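User: Predict structure, ligand calcium ion.
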Amino acid sequence: MRKNKETWWKEAVVYQIYPRSFMDSNGDGIGDLQGIIHSLDYLADLGVDVIWLSPIYDSPNDDNGYDIRDYQRIMKEFGTMDDFDMLLEQAHQKGLKIMMDLVVNHTSDEHEWFVKSRQNTDNPYRDYYIWREGKKSGLEPNNWESCFSGSAWQYDETREMFYLHLFSKKQPDLNWENSRVRHAVYDMMRWWCDKGIDGFRMDVINMISKDEELPDGKNINGLFGDFSPYVMNGPKVHEFLREMHDEVLSHYDLMTVGETPNVTTEEAKKYAGEETNELNMIFQFEHVEFGGEIGKWTDKKIPLVELKRIMSKWQTELEGHAWNSLYWNNHDQPRAVSRFGDDRPQYREISAKMLATCLHFMKGTPYIYQGEELGMTNYPFSQIDQFKDIESINAYKEIVGNQRLEHDQMMSCLRFKSRDNARTPMQWSNNKQGGFTTGKPWLPVNPNKDEVNAEVEVNNPNSVYHYYKKIIQLRKKHSIIVYGDYELLEERHEQLFVYRRCLENEHLLVLCNFSDEVIKYKMPMQLEQYDVIITNNQRKVLESEMELQPYEAFVIKY
Ligand code: GLC
Ligand code: CA
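Assistant: Predicted complex:
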């Protein structure tokens, strides 16, 4: 029986663009909207349905656009509002939808609201942000640590109070308790919807409601406390999202996805429940946060048994209640093939295809991050001054500065997990600078651009690119890929990820070897009639006892 209502956003495949690193049209080394417009045919050919644009709004770029100065202007490096209108129109003509990043937990400290709010305690914007007196001793109001290291409070000389910033001190948190703030946000959202955009990806949306007592957090590192219990999935978050739904979302045909660190499946059912009128789906974090030793930092891969446990928990616990999103990477995470696959040259392509198979046949809406469809890898960072990302730079200073890790250990963690791995330029060709720019790129191009690039891969039918294209086509052809139930097999197997999907009388068996070893495997069932619908290793027939090649993956329908 089909339990899930059929909707376009369940059947869609999303492609995330990080505009700064996608395509530079004017040689200043920074990607821009005209660059995206020139690349629309590439995306239409790949077959994706929705483009999620990381923020393109006016911003001083303390956190690459996640610090917004004006929600209704375009960042000047990226172009103008006319460029945006042209992008929206041309995308729609090619059947592509546009999902905007909505960053409303915080603004830039250069946003007009904050500029006014900080002036004094007697102006209409005074309660737009979270202001507090310091403790008697002049210390911060509480011990919370910011996500980007250091205290989450900044003293403001003009207003003579502290303001809360869960991210950088140039990203003050908005005060969602203030209904004028909420309605100003809804007005802004309606303005974009009326332009004809197709959805919102909502930045850290589960952090907008704070426990008003702002209690000290459990000490995490001898210096600061953890804000999570008082901020993540806070007391009024569902009330606020239902209000946003009534005020804005319910009036348009949108796709909405909430970015929700520290979310549980129970909370997810509220955010993304079929009947709860909040969001369509959320991004859970368990598979990407696993194993952090100091905060998020580690240089170790997640054991496959844990990965299967986490992914399968989300598959089965949301079944019939809420919809999943599916992702291996994004602009905040390292490259999928380097993290979950194997980026050594002999295994890069096959393991990238294996990962695509494993993810896209699960139940949920898949998200591809730019360059993932080429099997782009982490960058070989060797020095700390190569990083541009505020999170990486601050974490290095804090962790190495306080001797919690040696330089070499922290570099190894950064190489494995830094967000800059995802942010090096998209590799379009083997030209100078990978065809991304004719100038000097803001982050260096990965030295493997001669082998890993769109031009080479579009022309090679066996490339990672063509494998993604095929997977996307299969999704359009077999509704079992979208709507079938999920069942994990071989739960304890340490190298193989095997699962089954079921819809009425149809079945899929998905088998992925996550190791560089040949694995002997006995099929869990005897099959007489079946089709191999995709394989990364030319497998045509199944033997009852098989030798699975390193990183082999295939899907059979029976
Ligand atoms: C989200 C974004 C990330 C940003 C942070 C603060 O996690 O994905 O890039 O730094 O929010 O806006
Ligand atoms: Ca440019």
